[in-house]
UniProtKB/TrEMBL annotation:
It comes from Actinomycetospora aeridis. Its main location: secreted. Residues 84-165 form the Peptidase M4 domain. It is found in: Secreted. Its EC number is 3.4.24.-. This is Neutral metalloproteinase. Keywords: Hydrolase, Metal-binding, Metalloprotease, Protease, Secreted, Zinc.
């Protein structure tokens, strides 16, 4: 089961001096553990129900038994008096429309899967999750977290776990799990930017800024632009632990208590890479950047790690936009920016490819003579400098 709140935040709340905060954290963690087991059983028995992504939103009435929830709004129904129902309905619809209009994907499974949402789950439940069949929202405790239906990027994040499940099926632990989380953050942010009509430079690149109550000193759950800066408060366990490059990769045990090897933590590295790609290319993130990432997701497998995904994005950028194209150069530079070097590529080879592309020639041979002359000139100048130093020492 994929939840928006990582275990390290919920665990930090267990250490609070406030009894009510501790109580809600325990209830959330207990429910999450129970639901994880249910999710495995449900996934085994699940049968796709093609419906063109039609939406149904149900009200749990603050209990935790989905079968007892009542349907409040269907695809063709008008808005209700419940803001949570309407927000969930709109969020599911916006995400569905993005995947269809931008990526030509028919709902979560690509086959028109029905989108079921459940609101008011449990009492003060501090989380939102996708369980392979539906989207479930807690109301938050009202002190730290607010209604989880209020954040479009959270909704798109969770639904994207479903997309990943039906494409690469990235294993939810260690690097493949962190990549799984990152893909959800990427498309969570991209869907929000698409809805708001923002360019990559205008976007905040924050995940879940709306889920914190006004009194909490936290910008968001995560920052894709600057991983490790989303919050810094003892209430949430101190400083945001996300790294922004491979030399800061956090090695954790592959257990539930340690976030399956830090999947919500190390996702900061590929998150930063996508941010760098989007701003490096410029314009709208839902253009070339999102297409490259989506095609790379479809070309990945369950055990894909960061290096393999980086190599795939580089290859896809070349296939889609041309070898040495600005898009491929941006992908190369972005992964370099998080200390991952594309296999078989180098800055020099990228300059040669870029020069060939700019000359309208598909090979580096068109610009090789000028590059050789340039290097020869640099060697000549260096030789002259060395000879001068030798004479000075003599």
């Amino acid at each position: 089961m994929n939840c928006i709140l990582p275990p390290h935040i919920l665990n930090a709340l267990l250490d609070s001096d406030d009894q009510e905060i501790r109580r809600t954290a325990v209830a959330t963690l207990t429910s999450t553990s129970r639901l994880r087991g249910e999710r495995i059983a449900r996934a085994i028995a699940a049968v796709a129900a093609p419906a063109g992504g039609r939406r149904t939103i149900s009200d749990c009435h603050h209990i935790k038994v989905l079968s007892q929830a009542t349907v409040e709004r269907g695809e063709d129904d008008p808005p209700t008096a419940d803001p949570s129902v309407n927000a969930a309905f709109d969020g599911l619809g916006t995400t569905r429309d993005f995947y269809w209009e931008i990526l030509q994907r028919n709902s979560i499974d690509g086959k028109g899967m029905r989108l079921n949402g459940y609101v008011h789950y449990g009492q003060k439940f501090n989380n939102a999750f996708w369980d392979s069949r539906e989207m479930v929202f807690g109301d938050g405790d009202g002190r730290i977290f607010s209604d989880f239906t209020g954040s479009l990027d959270v909704i798109a994040h969770e639904l994207t776990h479903g997309v990943t499940e039906h494409t690469a099926g990235l294993d939810y632990h260690n690097q493949s799990g962190a990549l799984n989380e990152s893909i959800s953050d990427v498309f969570g942010s991209v869907v929000k930017q698409w809805k708001l009509g923002q360019t990559a430079d205008q976007a905040d690149w924050l995940i879940g800024p709306e889920i914190f109550t006004p009194g909490i000193e936290a910008d968001a759950l995560r920052s894709m632009k600057a991983p490790g800066t989303a919050y810094d408060t003892p209430l949430l366990g101190g400083k945001d632990p996300q790294p922004d490059r491979m030399s800061k990769f956090v090695h954790l045990p592959d257990t539930d208590e340690d976030d399956n090897g830090g999947v919500h933590i190390n996702s900061g590295i590929p998150n930063k890479a996508f941010y760098l790609v989007a701003t490096g290319i410029g314009g709208n993130s839902w253009g070339a950047p999102a297409i490259i990432w989506y095609e790379s997701l479809k070309a990945s497998s369950a055990d894909t790690v960061f290096q393999e995904f980086a190599d795939t994005t580089f290859a896809k950028a070349g296939q889609l936009y041309g070898t040495g194209s600005p898009e491929q150069q941006a992908v190369f530079a972005a992964w370099q920016g998080v200390e991952i070097t594309i296999t078989g590529a180098s800055p020099l080879s990228m300059r040669l490819s870029a020069g060939a592309a700019s000359n309208g020639n598909g090979t580096a041979a068109a610009v090789l003579p000028s590059r050789v002359d340039e290097l020869a000139g640099q060697i000549k100048a260096l030789t002259k400098e060395v000879n001068g130093l030798r004479k000075a020492r003599a």
